[in-house]
């Protein structure tokens, strides 16, 4: 049986000096293992194992990102479905209603009755794809659990003024519109 070293020498890939050098290195390594009592780590094997660990970690990260994106997409699909099923009519649209969405002030035109429902908190504005829709408060709370960034939070005016308010004596009329 012909050894690998002899085959490489016959093919002309290595010469006698390199074969002898490899034998000496192997002998030194074996003697070192006997002297210290520990085996020398196979560096190539260690490198392969480390590479496999890195690839597995990268695959886990990519899977986590993909799962997060899929769950976010599913949540948005649920929100869209809830809005489509429960949206309310805006009425004739003769009264402008201003609200803040993000850092912008937006405006929708609603009927007077719908405006009163918005002010009282029975209806809530939900903005999907830059389109404002009206939904009942119960549905808006369920939507806010899933995607709070699409629900416009309408803050009710305080019924009692603060104790140190210098303008407490000046009442704002109920029919005042901005």
Commentary on this structure:
- The chain is an alpha+beta fold.
- The protein has helices at 4-11, 16-36, 43-86, 112-120, 137-146; strands spanning 95-101, 104-110, 123-128, 131-136.
- The longest helix has 44 residues, at 43-86.
- The radius of gyration is 37 Å and the shape is rod-shaped.
- Among the domains are: 8-36; 84-150, no CATH class.
- 52% of the residues lie in helices and 15% in strands.
- It starts with a helix and ends in a 32-residue tail after the last helix.
- It has a two-stranded antiparallel sheet.
Radius of gyration: 37 Å
Note the overall shape.
rod-shaped
Q: How are the strands of the largest sheet arranged?
A: 1-2
Mean pLDDT: 84
Portion of residues within helices: 40-55%
Low-pLDDT residue spans: none
Biggest sheet record: 2 strands, antiparallel
β-strand percent reads 5-15%
Number of strands: 4
